[in-house]
Amino acid sequence: MLILVIVLVIVAIPLVLASRKPDSFEVKRVITIAKPRQFVFDYIGLMKNQDTYSVWMMLDPAMVKTFTGVDGEIGFESHWVSKNKKVGEGKQRIIAIEKGKRMDFEIQFIKPMENKANASLQLEELAANSTRVTWAFTGPMNFGMKVMHVCVNMEKILGKDLERGLSNLKRILENKN
Q: What's the first-to-final CA gap in the chain, in angstroms?
């Protein structure tokens, strides 16, 4: 009987902690790039360029991608399929653009786990040749995600990937004329 109680407590603790988690998440990271805001926007405004700086796009060079629409315009969609379980299958679509300042994306993860999230790249001109770039991810957290967040620090994991991606972007743009 004591073993049963201990097992129930061990199972109950993560469930109780998960029930106290918020219904959504937000992770964002910021970097400053020594280039004019429009120069940075002209690069990030094309979703296909994410292949050069996003760590997720670099995980599987053999992933199959298909595109619909005109890159850099609202409605442009990228669909990817990968045998790598860290990449899986999903879609990303441009849902809003504020020219020179912001791009918003809707991301639909299909495999290995269905989920949706939103991402944005926001630009702020600090000086004529200095731009602050903020990369943010937001999304809903269903109960399964909340349980996972009890055991896994998604802020740290996702944040690390955003930091690496922004560092890649900075290196590319600051070496580009």
A: 71
pTM attached to this predicted model? 0.80
* Cα of 60 vs its chain's centroid, Å: 16
**How many domains are contained in the chain?**
1
How confident is the model at residue 101, as a pLDDT? 96
Q: What residues make up the domain containing 47?
A: 26-174
Check residue 84 and give left, alpha or beta (phi > 0: left; psi -120 to 50: alpha). beta
pLDDT at residue 59, as a whole number: 87
Return the higher-pLDDT residue of 155 and 20. 155
